[in-house]
Specification:
The protein is an all-alpha fold. The chain has one domain. The chain is about 70% helix and about 0% strand. It has six helices and no strands.
């Protein structure tokens, strides 16, 4: 596919690597990124996959990964909004709140089977297990810091809502 139109997700993966043997870029393990998304949210995994696609130089998949990342951010803040809603609303539908807690997990499954598996297949076909791995220290620190910031902001908003 050309750079302006990514290949459909069910299209065969082009395994012609533009890298000479031993010249493959350092990448994060895409399966580990998906697993860490259970703890850190789908925002984490979609960002890691985006960075991997950028390193691989696949412009079409990079654009698709940006869309998944944007959707993950929307899902993340929508879920937080639903959790804060009872503090500010005079009435709310408890069933909606109950179902909204599943939103990130449904999104995670959609992303995993709709996009993440393509990166796993691509990397296995191109490199097998023979590629330089990026260290997880920086992404983990950002994820932990991000969650700390979310908890502080969430606590502040929740306290304001309870006091108001």
């Amino acid at each position: 596919m050309d750079d302006n139109h990514p290949a459909p997700l069910d299209a065969p993966i082009d395994i012609a690597a533009p890298f000479a043997a031993g010249d493959a870029p350092a990448l994060w393990n895409p399966e580990a990124a998906a697993a860490w998304s259970l703890l850190f949210s789908p925002v984490f995994g979609t960002w890691v996959h985006l960075k991997n696609w950028q390193a691989l130089g696949d412009a079409g998949r990079v654009r698709l990964a940006w869309a998944w990342l944007a959707a993950a951010i929307v899902v993340f803040f929508t879920t937080l909004g639903f959790r804060l809603w009872p503090l500010f609303a005079s009435s709310y539908d408890a069933d909606t709140l109950q179902y909204s807690q599943w939103l990130p997990y449904v999104f995670l499954l959609a992303w995993f089977f709709g996009s993440a598996q393509a990166q796993v297949r691509t990397m296995r076909a191109r490199f097998g297990e023979h590629y330089a791995r990026k260290r997880w220290k920086a992404p983990m620190l950002w994820a932990i810091g991000g969650w700390a910031a979310v908890f502080v902001a969430y606590g502040y908003v929740a306290l304001k809502g309870l006091a108001g």
